[in-house]
UniProtKB/TrEMBL annotation:
<keyword id="KW-0030">Aminoacyl-tRNA synthetase</keyword>
<keyword id="KW-0648">Protein biosynthesis</keyword>
<keyword id="KW-0547">Nucleotide-binding</keyword>
<dbReference type="InterPro" id="IPR002313">
    <property type="entry name" value="Lys-tRNA-ligase_II"/>
</dbReference>
<comment type="similarity">
    <text>Belongs to the class-II aminoacyl-tRNA synthetase family.</text>
</comment>
<dbReference type="InterPro" id="IPR018149">
    <property type="entry name" value="Lys-tRNA-synth_II_C"/>
</dbReference>
<feature type="compositionally biased region" description="Low complexity">
    <location>
        <begin position="1"/>
        <end position="13"/>
    </location>
</feature>
<feature type="region of interest" description="Disordered">
    <location>
        <begin position="1"/>
        <end position="21"/>
    </location>
</feature>
<keyword id="KW-0963">Cytoplasm</keyword>
<keyword id="KW-0479">Metal-binding</keyword>
<dbReference type="InterPro" id="IPR045864">
    <property type="entry name" value="aa-tRNA-synth_II/BPL/LPL"/>
</dbReference>
<keyword id="KW-0436">Ligase</keyword>
<dbReference type="Pfam" id="PF01336">
    <property type="entry name" value="tRNA_anti-codon"/>
</dbReference>
<comment type="subunit">
    <text>Homodimer.</text>
</comment>
<dbReference type="InterPro" id="IPR004364">
    <property type="entry name" value="Aa-tRNA-synt_II"/>
</dbReference>
<feature type="binding site">
    <location>
        <position position="417"/>
    </location>
    <ligand>
        <name>Mg(2+) 1</name>
    </ligand>
</feature>
<dbReference type="Pfam" id="PF00152">
    <property type="entry name" value="tRNA-synt_2"/>
</dbReference>
């Protein structure tokens, strides 16, 4: 409870005319502040502590108790009452912590109080100095002996008592962070997740590296790239769709356990699980395979859950609890598809038979081949039924050109996709390291590209040359960081990205 009711903006969002009027008033205040020598934007203010630190140290004070400690702190004005001989202002720090400041005639004097009433608005950054006390109603406060505007806000804050529209949250994330605790929490959750991932890798002797974002040949995934032009080299370049081919070069060079957390760019659709620009984790482990890399991936996700939630059971934004603990399910793509479709589908099933099934089910496949049809039919029949975290194993060879052939099942490769919350979170391989077979796969991809598949990979001679120097048997994985945040928070992808791309 505060000692005075908070002044708020109008219940509805201000109109453009109202915003323009308020901006004009605030700009005039800015001008008068600067003319008077008080400064609307001082280079610094003498802060000695932070709002969270004061709350941690003195939050135990009872009503009417005093600390005996004088502090200087600053925060954004989020509530304000300017009447009589005592003004109340609530200051908010970047993490959302708040403290009340009391500006009284007795402590600051007549002129300072009058200036406070004239110049301070909601949204300003304000510095106050004074003793930490607990008010008569038990509100932790600073009884100010001095104050100073740290930064004048010339635009009004949105209504602090109503939700921002999704459009405003996406376009003006800075306002979302000021107003909404969940937005701030997602940023903290992401930071804890990244620290956890790096800690898990460090515990397993992985080295973090950086690979090029601008590439002369796009590769490492089946995706449509963004194209740009280098003036310096007078050549067409591609924004990275995946770091895989460069990370494998690092493995060839002797970095046996390597990972990268990077930005990838794919010139494709945007929806609740896809963003054209996104964060990706990829890792490669010499002398591992898709089984060992699955165990690593499970550990990475479970450790991240522990870091952000203190448990393998995470609570999503809507209150749903989701269990990421235990050993995760493993199912075969072909076997699960056969069971769901009610007929036997194997790597030998003819394309015509698969196409007929797709036609009956209304499943459209662009430039269909065996592998594409199997994967699209699997998504149609099986994907929606997955609830628990599940590794889907053993994919068609046609759709996995960088993956080693299965050691015992002809026609498939040692690849898994990890599904969590009904979406694909990660993928892992037993890596293809034979340069002869890799060249054959690239040639087949080139044929698909020539037939009109703009997601097919290009022939990368430099990568093939690296493989020819010998790459050890390896396991590799890739996981979307934004999607990992989705799994931990239950939010859509645009909510997990701090500044999502908005048209």
């Amino acid at each position: 409870m505060t000692d005075a009711p908070a002044a708020t903006l109008t219940p509805a969002e201000p109109t453009d005319d109202e915003v323009s009027e308020q901006k004009a008033v605030r700009l005039a205040k800015r001008e008068r502040l600067n003319e008077s020598g008080m400064e609307a934007y001082p280079v610094s203010v003498p802060v000695t502590t932070t709002i969270p630190a004061v709350r941690a140290k003195w939050g135990h004070l009872q009503a009417d108790e005093v600390s005996g400690e004088t502090v200087g702190l600053a925060g954004r004005v989020v509530h304000l009452r300017n009447t009589g001989k005592l003004c109340f202002v609530s200051l908010q720090s970047g993490d959302g912590s708040r403290i009340q400041a009391m500006i009284s005639l007795a402590n600051v004097g007549e002129q300072s109080l009058a200036d406070f009433k004239e110049y301070v608005d909601l949204g300003d950054h304000l510095f106050v100095s004074g003793e930490v006390i607990s008010s008569r109603r038990g509100e932790l406060s600073v009884m100010a002996t001095g104050w100073k505007i740290a930064s004048k806000a010339v635009l009004p804050l949105p209504n602090l008592h109503s939700e921002l529209s999704e459009e405003t949250r996406m376009r003006s994330r800075y306002l979302d962070l000021i107003v909404r605790e969940q937005a701030r929490q997602v940023v903290r959750t992401r930071a804890l997740t990244m620290a956890s991932l790096r800690s898990t890798f460090a515990g397993r002797d992985f080295l973090e590296v950086e690979t090029p974002m601008l590439q002369t040949i796009h590769g490492g995934a089946a995706a449509r790239p963004f194209v740009t032009h280098s003036n310096a080299f007078d050549t067409e370049l591609y924004l990275r769709i995946a770091p895989e081919l460069f990370l494998k070069r690092a493995v060839v060079g002797g970095i046996d356990r390597v990972f990268e957390i990077n930005r990838n760019f794919r010139n494709e659709g945007a929806d609740s699980t896809h963003s054209p620009e996104f964060a990706m984790l990829e890792a490669y482990e010499s002398y591992g395979d898709y089984t060992s890399i699955a165990e690593l991936t499970q550990t990475l996700v479970q450790n991240a859950a522990l870091a952000v939630a203190g448990s393998h059971v995470v609570t999503w934004a809507d209150g749903t609890e989701y269990d990421l603990g235990g050993e995760w399910d493993r199912i075969s793509m072909y076997e699960s598809l056969s069971a769901a479709a009610g007929l036997s589908i194997t790597p030998e099933t003819p394309v015509a038979e698969l196409q007929a099934l797709a036609d009956r089910e209304g499943v459209e496949v662009h430039l269909p081949n065996h592998g594409k049809l199997v994967e699209e039919l699997w998504e149609h029949f099986v994907k929606g039924s997955l609830v628990r975290p599940t590794f889907v194993l053993d994919f068609p060879v046609e759709t996995s050109p960088l993956t080693r052939a299965h050691r015992s099942i002809p026609g498939v490769v040692e690849k898994w996709d990890l599904y969590v919350r009904g979406f694909e979170l990660a993928t892992g391989y037993s890596e293809l390291v034979d340069p002869v077979i890799q060249r054959e796969r690239f040639v087949e991809q080139a044929k698909q590209a020539a037939a009109g598949d703009d997601e097919a990979m290009r022939l990368d001679e430099e990568f093939l040359r690296a493989l020819e120097f010998g790459m050890p048997p390896s396991g590799g994985m890739g996981m979307g960081i934004d999607r990992l945040l989705m799994a931990l928070t239950g939010l859509g992808i645009r909510e997990t990205i701090l500044f999502p791309l908005v048209k």
